[in-house]
C-alpha cells in the first residue's frame, strides 16, 4: 500500500522544497504613491509659500527667501535625524537578533525571559520609551578612572533602539519559524549540532525573509526620529522651530518650513518603501 502511494506521488511534492514565487499581480484597489504625488506635494508647498508672500506687507522678507536662508541649517538637522536612525537601527538590530535567538533557545530560563522582554518593549509607546531613556539614564557615567558624559542625542538613540530591538527580535523568531522543519532534520542527519544548524543552515536562509520587514522597520524608525525634538535634541524639527522663532514667529512661515521638512522625509523614505515592496515580491515564499 505504501509503495503504491509513493509511486503515485510526484517527486515535486514528496520533497520539502521552496516553490518559486508567484508572479505579482497588482490589485485593482491597491493604493501606491507615484512620482506625481511628490510633484503635487511640491506644488502645494509652493502655493502656500506664494500665499505667504501675498500676506506680507512688502517690507518683510518673503517666505521663499527665508526658507532658502535657513535651508542649510534644516538640511544639517535632517542629516542628524539620519545619523540617529542609523545608530538606533544598528544597536537595535544587534541586540534584537540576540533576543530573537533567545526566544528560540532550549534553555528554560532564557526563552521566557527573552519572550517577556520582547513583548514588553514591543507593546510600549515609542515616545514613552524615549522619555524613559531620556530621564532615567544618568547624565554621565563614572567608570572610576574616567567620566563618560551621556548627551541627549545618545539617550535618544538608546530610547529609539528599544522598540527596534523588540521588533527585530520578532522578525528573527518569525523568519526561523517559517522555515520547514525538514531543514532541521536534514542538518541533524548530517551530524550538525543545534548551533551549527542555526548559524550555517537556518540563518543564511532567513536573511531574505528578514530583509523586507527590517527595511520597513527602518523606514518607520526614520520617521519616528522627529520624536527626539520633544526632548530637546537638535534635529530638523527642533531647528525648524528655532528658525521660526528667530524670524519673530511669523505665522506665514509655518507651512513653508514644515512642508519642506515633510518633503525631506518623503524623498528619503519613499524609495525605501518602493525597494521594500520589490524585495517582498522577489522573495515571496509560496507555501
From TrEMBL:
Coiled coil: none
Keyword Iron: no
Annotated compartments: Cell inner membrane; Cell membrane
SUPFAM superfamilies registered for this protein in UniProt: MetI-like
Keywords of this entry: Amino-acid transport, Cell membrane, Membrane, Transmembrane, Transmembrane helix, Transport
Span of domain ABC transmembrane type-1: 78-266
InterPro entries: AA_ABC_transptr_permease_3TM (IPR010065), ArtM/GltK/GlnP/TcyL/YhdX-like (IPR043429), MetI-like (IPR000515), MetI-like_sf (IPR035906)
Main location: membrane
Origin: domain of life: Bacteria
Topology versus the membrane: Multi-pass membrane protein
Segments crossing the lipid bilayer: 35-54, 74-99, 120-141, 217-241, 253-273
Entries under Pfam families matching the protein: BPD_transp_1
PANTHER family: AMINO ACID ABC TRANSPORTER PERMEASE, MEMBRANE COMPONENT OF AMINO ACID ABC TRANSPORTER
UniProt record similarity statement: Belongs to the binding-protein-dependent transport system permease family. HisMQ subfamily.
Protein name: Amino acid ABC transporter permease
Protein species of origin: Candidatus Doriopsillibacter californiensis
